[in-house]
Specification:
alpha/beta; Aspartate Aminotransferase, domain 1; 2 domains; 16 strands; globular; binds pyridoxal-5'-phosphate
Length: about 450
């Protein structure tokens, strides 16, 4: 660890003693002291006291401009008034019935009006949504194999816990990646059924389909890869996937858990002009509540209607969550708010680009809709293998330096990205950029020194 980075981490420790103490206690009872593996990072994660709009406070009372927003789940910002009102009203009418109540229809109508689907089922998490979407695809095609993209993340279930963050020494040929299970406990046989293709590579996809003729039920992918920071599809890539999957009788599933609510009014199919067979939605459609969904045409969802395909869950369509979802669609994911977000995004990306250039940092910034990221690479990242070679120390330097100055620029992790919320103002973006500008000379100097000694892979 180089001295400027060490100094930022020392400052972080000094600013967050209560988080340190809370984490020490939590780790005795809760593995890693956190509720989800991704939330842990050394020396200790920030423990949050409260959040409002675009800001949060930690246990020591430090305020942060929040661009993490629960890993992109809060384009609404914290405690959006329309969501809070709907939830508060609904709370007093009963919180859980395990019986239909009508709100699910209202929310399904909102989704079908925007996204290219005719029927929707709701789940409580994105992982559940992708799990059931895959089951439906397998059930309706009568095929067992699926293709996922190397580096895409679709939740914690076995079928997609393959080649998420595979070590390069296990990942094989970049043109024909070896499927690698992402966790102990994932059945070894999973890699027989989950095939892996590189992003932005139609030839590789063609080869997989040729090798497994008539056996592939679906291709599932994030239309913009947002579990390797921010990686756009090349022009024509999604259209190419559409053509290949149709030609082979396989379904195309856009996992829009990250893009769905945040890219634009109708998500990736509108943005890229490509219509998938199924979509999954989650994160920002819930306004801060645990809501996700999978949807498709009437024909595809007929497997559930005919009771040949099973989807169930005690907490599904919890009325409080449905109320939050409806309020989010009607009060947050509005055309006015998308243009506000687009303005903020343009300023954020161009602001980053200017600071990068002025300071001579080898990097670029990219973004679309509410999301974007600082990419510490010498050329545009097109797939998992390109992303893999980040200078992790330099990325840590960026993150801790921003956090120490009151800006949580994105979740911890160079695989994540910033999220903008409707609660953020232009002044908030300027503050974010001001802080990046302040730390940029030290970042540039550290990068130059690391390039000189070969520690930075440029
Ligand atoms: C693209 C994508 N799909 C699915 C998931 C899983 O969603 P959840 O964490 O709600 O299970 C995530 C979570 O980050 C995601 O980014």
């Amino acid at each position: 660890m180089y001295p400027a980075l060490q100094q930022e981490i020392d400052t972080y420790r000094k600013r967050t003693p209560s988080s340190h103490e809370a984490h020490e206690r939590a780790a005795k009872r809760v593995p890693l002291g956190v509720g989800s593996n991704y939330r842990f990072y050394p020396p200790h994660p920030i423990f949050v006291r409260d959040g409002q709009g675009g800001r949060i406070h930690d246990l020591d009372g430090n305020e942060y401009l929040d661009f993490n927003l629960c890993y992109g789940s809060l384009m609404a910002g914290h405690c959006h008034p329309a969501v809070m009102k709907a939830v508060e009203e609904r709370l007093h009418l009963g919180t859980l019935f395990g019986m239909p109540h009508g709100l699910e229809l209202e929310l399904a109508e909102e989704i079908c009006a925007r996204f290219p689907v005719e029927m929707v089922r709701f789940t409580n998490s994105g992982g559940e949504a992708t799990m059931y979407a895959i089951r439906v695809a397998r059930g309706m095609t009568g095929r067992e194999k699926i293709v996922k993209i190397e580096g895409c993340y679709h939740g914690g279930h076995d079928a997609v816990s393959v080649s998420v963050k595979a070590k390069l020494e296990l990942a094989g040929d970049p043109e024909n990646p070896t499927p690698v299970t992402a966790s102990l406990g994932v059945l070894k046989g999973t890699t027989d059924q989950t095939l892996v293709a590189p992003f932005n590579n139609l030839d590789a996809m063609e080869r997989l389909f040729a090798r497994h003729q008539g056996q592939i039920a679906a291709v599932i992918l994030e239309p913009i890869m947002m579990n390797v920071a921010f990686v756009m599809p090349d022009a024509g890539y999604l259209a190419g996937l559409r053509e290949i999957t149709s030609r082979h009788g396989a379904l195309l599933i856009f996992d829009e858990i990250k893009t769905g609510g945040k890219l634009c009014w109708s998500g990736a199919s509108e943005y890229f002009g490509v219509k998938p067979d199924m979509i999954t939605l989650g994160k920002s459609i819930g306004g801060g509540f645990p809501l996700a969904a999978f949807g498709a045409s009437r024909e595809i969802m007929d497997g559930i209607v005919q009771q040949k395909i099973y989807h169930a869950g005690t907490y599904n369509t919890n009325p409080v969550v449905m109320a939050a979802g409806i309020a989010t669609f009607r009060g947050v994911l509005t055309r006015d708010n998308y243009s506000h977000i687009d303005n903020l995004s343009r300023r954020m990306v161009s602001g980053y680009a200017g600071i990068i250039k002025r300071n001579g940092i080898v990097a670029y910034a990219d973004g679309a809709g509410a999301n974007g990221a600082l990419m510490l690479y010498d050329k545009r990242v097109r797939n998992y293998r390109d992303w893999y070679h980040v200078d992790q120390d330099l990325w840590h330097h960026y993150w801790f330096a921003m956090v120490n100055r009151g800006v949580l620029p994105q979740p911890f992790g160079w695989d994540e990205q910033w999220t903008l919320s409707v609660a953020h103002t232009e002044a908030d973006i300027e503050r974010h950029l001001e802080v990046f500008d302040e730390i940029a000379p030290a970042l540039a100097a550290a990068q130059r020194a690391r390039i000189a000694v070969g520690a930075h892979s440029v």
